[in-house]
Amino acid sequence: MNRMQPSVESPQAIADSDALAVERTLAGERDAFRVLVERHSQNVFRLAYRMTGNQHDAEEIVQEAFLRAYQKLGQFAARANFGTWVYRIAANYAIDRLRQRQKEESRREQPSAESKDGMQDDPMSRVADEAPTPERLTQSMELRKQMEQALAALSHAERTAFVMRHWEGCGIEEIAAVLESNSSAAKNTVFRAVQKLRQALQPLVGTRAQARAMGTEP
Fold first, then answer.
1. Cα–Cα distance between 164 and 181 in angstroms, integer?
2. Neighbouring C-beta atoms of residue 116, cutoff 10 Å
3. DSSP single-letter state for residue 118
4. What are the backbone angles phi and psi of residue 131, rounded to the nearest 5°?
5. In this structure, are residues 200 and 153 in contact, taking their beta carbons and an 8 Å threshold?
6. Of 46, 104, 105, 134, which is most buried with the most CB atoms under 10 A?
């Protein structure tokens, strides 16, 4: 299933409709751009939320992505897929936001990860619990924070490829289109991303099941 296309229309029909909407927008019909926003905003929001873990940031990314797309629409004239184009704009902006957040957090004092008895807590051990306690929720949040930091350390291409492949379920061809590369290069990018994340999270990931939960299982 093509995750980037929620409509029941065929990909070609959507591409043709998008092309018409782009043509009408460039001709001065501003309302035509609304068709593109309504058709693709849900996919863009899902990607942004997956990458940031924050609804406010995701909503801002959606707004900024479509604003940039509108401002640069003339550059899209020769392109074949508007959805892929705006998806890429959103992914790159999301990564910029994550890197900015990481810099801001690095300037703050990090809380201690030690438990009351002085032993290091393992946030990963709490992820699979069905009814987490407040303590477990806190530890799960710490895990997500560590995952976000590890993801933010990836290159733009690696971050986008990992999220699209393992969290969005996108195909390699879709990823290659967003990264403007070929399928072989996209596969290699996904592989590098997984290897880097596995290495960065190794102290936290103690079991195969936990690795599977984070999308870094081989």
1. 15
2. 6
3. S
4. -125, 75
5. yes
6. 46
Provide the CA 7 distance to its chain's centre, in angstroms: 20
Are the C-beta atoms of residues 141 and 169 closer than 8 Å to each other?
Answer: no
Query: Which residues, including other chains, have CB under 8 Å from residue 51's CB and lie 6 or more apart?
Result: 91, 94, 95, 98, 151, 159, 163
144 CB-near residues (< 8 Å, 6+ apart)? 53
CA 79, CA 19: separation in Å to the nearest integer? Answer: 9
- Report yes or no: 210 and 127 within 8 Å, Cβ to Cβ: yes
Distance between CA atoms of residues 15 and 177, nearest Å: 14
- Whole-structure pTM value: 0.65
pLDDT of residue 30: 81
Cα–Cα distance between 68 and 178 in angstroms, integer? Answer: 16
The structure tokens 């004239």 sit at 77
Which 8-state DSSP code applies to residue 167?
Answer: I
Question: Of the ranges 76-80, 82-86, 153-157, which is most confident?
Answer: 82-86
